[in-house]
Write a structure and sequence with these properties.
It comes from Actinomadura rubrisoli. With 153 residues, the chain is mostly helical. The protein has four helices and no strands.
């Protein structure tokens, strides 16, 4: 004898107010960015001072290392609640947008060093921080728009 099975009610997950979810996401993104900034800042200064790297190359190498770290932390922590289709599109888009962020950093550093002729460490670090700030703002906006998209309904 067969019985009619009734569908089980869906489990409800308590919803978090939108502003709290945004603040959590922004705070974790900020922390990941802070770690990435430390990697970039100290790596760039180390390369420039101890290894004699050019001001532009000394920004690029640590930023690439920071980008790898940031991708993993953002994917598995900051934006873990957002979908990933597993196609590789996310990774390619992430690194392409980070290339734009890196370009912003390089332009700030290069402009200060080559155009303004400011070669001291204070000017270098100010340009580096300005580039990191502008690049981070671009990255946050672009990650939400194109990389870590909202979960499908």
């Amino acid at each position: 004898m067969s019985t009619i099975q009734r569908p089980r009610p869906a489990k409800t997950v308590p919803s978090v107010p939108a502003y709290r979810a945004f603040l959590r996401e922004l705070a974790t993104f900020g922390f990941v960015g802070f770690v990435g900034t430390l990697i970039t800042f100290f790596g760039a200064n180390l390369m420039r001072a101890w290894l004699g790297g050019s001001p532009v190359i000394s920004v690029v190498v640590p930023t690439v290392l920071s980008t790898l770290t940031s991708y993993l932390a953002n994917r598995f922590w900051t934006f873990r609640h957002r979908d990933s289709d597993g196609s590789g599109r996310e990774v390619v888009t992430f690194f392409a947008l980070n290339g734009v962020g890196l370009l912003i950093q390089v332009l700030c550093t290069g402009f200060t060093y080559y155009t303004l002729g400011l070669h001291g460490s204070v000017a270098y670090n100010a340009a580096l921080l300005a580039g990191l700030g502008l690049g981070s703002a671009f990255r946050y906006w672009s990650y939400k728009k194109w990389v870590f998209t909202p979960a499908a309904a």
